[in-house]
C-alpha cells in the first residue's frame, strides 16, 4: 500500500484512504460521486451550497442534500457571505446526514464574490476569522475550510489565512494553489500550498489534516504534490472529469487507463446510476452530456460520436451511441494507448472548459439577502 492508500482521521470521521473528490458545482451529484467512490475516492462532497439558499430552505439546495445508501462517507460545503448566515447554515447541516462540513473560501465566480462569499473572504480577514469561529461553535462534526492562496497574485496572504483558520480549531484545511485572479488557468503553485500547510500546522489547536489541491491529473502529479507540500491527502477536481479511474491510479501507484471494455462498463454504470437518480427523461439525458463528452476523450476518432452524444435526447440514445462507438474498436484497446500527451491530457486545454458552466449557472443562489 502506498502513502495515499493509508487510512486518515479527520476529527471523528475515518477515511479509508487519502484521495478526496472535491466539491464540484454542477458535477458532483450522487451518480458521479458513486462512480468515483467505487473507483477509490476516500471522501466525496456535495457541491457547494450558499448559506443564503440554506437559510431560505431553497428547494433545489435541499434536494442537493440527498445521500445514497452506498455513500458511507460524505461531506458538505457551504459558503458565506456573513458569519451569521454561515453559522445558521452549519447549525442546519449539523443535523443532516453528513460526516464533515467544509467552508468555501475560494470560489472565484463573479456573482459569488460580489455577494461577499467564496474567495471574497480572503480580502476580509476579520470576517473570515469570525465566520470560522461561529461555524466551529455551531457543530461538533469535523469542520474544514478550503481556500486559495490569496485574492490577487500580487497579494498572496495564504500564511495569514491558514493561521487564522487553524487557530479557530478546524480539523482540516484544503489549500488550492492559485489566487482568485488566476481562476483555474495558471499552473498550480505548490510552494504556495506548502506555505499554507506549514502555517496551518504551526497554528493548529487540535490535530489538523492538510490537503493539497490543484492540477492533480494522475499518480505523478499526486506524488509531486505530496513531495513538495508535505500534504496529508490530495483533493482531485478537474482530473476526475471523465476520468474516475484517477482514484485507482493514485491508490495503485501506476497508470490505470481502462481498456475499451472496462471503460464502457463504467460509463454504462454511471448512466444507470444517473437514471436511478434523475429518471429517464430529456433533462436527465441533457445532464449526462458533459460527462459523456469528457469520457470519450482518449480513444481515437471520437469527433462524430462526440457530436451525436452532445445532441442526444434520451439515455437510451446515448447508450446506443456509446455501444456503437465501442464496437468499432478492439475490446482491449487501452485509453490513451500510444499517447504522448501523458498527464497533461486532462488539463485545462480542452475546448470544453467546465468552469464556464460553473460561471453561467452554478452560483448556488447567492446574492443579497433582502
Ligand atoms: C466545474 C467546477 C466546479 C467547481 N465547484 C467547486 C465547488 O463547488 N466547491 C469548491 O470548493 N471548489 C469548486 N471548484 C474548484 C475545484 O474544487 C478546485 O479547487 C480547482 O478546480 C482546482 O483544482 P484542479 O486544478 O485540480 O481542477 C470547482 C471547479 C470546477 C472546474
Per CATH, the superfamily of the largest domain is Aldolase class I
Calculate the mean pLDDT score and round it. 92
Which shape, going by the Cα principal axes?
Answer: globular
Question: Could you say what the CATH architecture of the largest domain is?
Answer: Alpha-Beta Barrel
Tell me the series of helices and strands, N- to C-terminal.
Answer: EEEHEEHHEHEHHEEHEHEHEHHHHHH
Helix % is 40-55%
Q: Predict the CATH topology of the largest domain.
A: TIM Barrel
Please report the total strand number as a whole number. 12
* N-to-C CA distance: 53 Å
Radius of gyration: 20 Å
List keywords for this structure.
about 375 residues; two-stranded antiparallel ribbon; alpha/beta; single chain; 10-stranded mixed sheet; 12 strands; 15 helices; TIM Barrel; binds flavin mononucleotide
Explain this structure:
With 370 residues, this protein is an alpha/beta fold. The chain has two domains: 3-255, TIM Barrel, CATH 3.20.20; 260-335. 42% of the residues lie in helices and 15% in strands. The chain has helices at 30-38, 51-55, 59-63, 83-94, 110-114, 125-138, 158-167, 190-203, 219-229, 245-252, 260-278, 282-295, 303-309, 315-327, 354-361; strands at residues 8-10, 13-15, 19-21, 44-45, 49-50, 74-79, 100-105, 143-152, 155-156, 172-179, 209-213, 233-236. Strands 3, 4, 5, 6, 7, 8, 9, 10, 11 and 12 form a ten-stranded mixed β-sheet that branches. Strands 1-2 form a two-stranded antiparallel sheet. Helix 4 links the parallel strand 6 and strand 7. It is globular and about 60 Å long. It starts with 7 loop residues before the first strand and ends in a 9-residue tail after the last helix. Bound molecules: flavin mononucleotide (FMN). Flavin mononucleotide is lined by residues 22-27, 47-48, 77, 104, 106-107, 146, 176, 184, 188, 213-216, 237-239, 354-355, 357-358.
Amino acid at each position: 500500500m502506498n502513502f495515499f492508500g493509508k487510512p486518515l482521521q479527520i476529527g471523528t470521521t475515518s477515511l479509508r484512504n487519502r484521495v478526496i473528490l472535491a466539491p464540484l458545482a454542477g458535477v458532483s451529484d450522487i451518480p458521479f460521486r458513486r462512480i468515483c467512490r467505487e473507483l477509490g475516492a476516500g471522501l466525496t462532497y456535495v457541491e457547494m451550497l450558499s448559506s443564503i439558499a440554506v437559510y431560505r430552505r431553497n428547494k433545489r439546495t435541499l434536494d442537493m442534500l440527498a445521500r445514497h445508501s452506498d455513500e458511507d462517507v460524505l461531506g458538505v460545503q457551504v459558503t458565506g457571505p456573513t458569519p451569521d448566515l454561515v453559522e445558521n447554515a452549519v447549525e442546519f447541516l449539523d443535523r443532516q446526514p453528513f460526516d464533515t462540513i467544509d467552508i468555501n473560501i475560494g470560489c472565484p465566480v463573479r456573482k459569488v464574490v460580489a455577494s461577499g462569499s467564496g474567495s471574497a473572504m480572503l480580502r476580509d480577514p476579520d470576517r473570515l476569522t469570525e465566520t470560522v469561529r461561529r461555524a466551529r461553535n455551531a457543530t461538533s462534526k469535523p469542520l474544514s475550510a478550503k481556500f486559495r492562496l490569496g485574492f490577487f497574485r500580487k497579494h498572496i496572504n495564504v500564511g495569514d489565512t491558514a493561521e487564522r483558520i487553524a487557530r479557530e480549531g478546524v480539523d482540516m484545511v484544503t489549500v488550492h494553489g492559485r489566487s482568485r485572479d488566476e481562476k483555474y488557468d495558471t499552473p498550480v503553485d505548490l510552494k504556495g500550498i506548502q506555505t499554507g500547510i506549514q502555517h496551518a500546522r504551526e497554528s493548529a489547536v487540535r490535530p489538523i489534516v492538510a490537503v493539497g489541491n490543484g492540477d492533480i491529473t494522475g499518480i505523478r502529479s499526486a506524488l509531486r504534490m505530496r513531495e513538495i507540500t508535505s500534504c496529508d491527502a490530495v483533493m482531485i477536481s478537474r482530473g476526475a472529469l471523465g476520468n474516475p479511474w484517477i482514484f485507482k491510479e493514485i491508490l495503485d501507484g501506476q497508470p490505470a487507463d481502462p481498456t475499451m471494455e472496462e471503460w464502457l462498463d463504467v460509463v454504462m454504470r454511471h448512466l444507470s446510476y444517473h437514471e436511478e437518480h434523475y429518471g429517464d427523461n430529456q433533462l436527465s439525458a441533457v445532464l449526462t452530456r458533459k460527462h459523456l463528452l469528457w469520457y470519450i476523450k482518449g480513444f481515437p476518432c471520437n469527433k462524430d460520436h462526440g457530436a451525436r452524444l452532445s445532441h442526444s435526447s434520451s439515455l437510451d440514445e446515448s447508450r446506443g451511441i456509446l455501444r456503437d462507438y465501442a464496437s468499432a474498436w478492439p475490446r482491449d484497446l487501452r485509453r490513451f494507448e500510444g499517447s504522448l500527451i501523458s498527464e497533461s491530457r486532462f488539463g485545462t486545454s480542452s475546448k470544453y472548459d467546465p468552469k464556464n458552466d460553473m460561471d453561467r449557472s452554478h452560483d448556488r443562489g447567492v446574492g443579497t439577502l433582502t
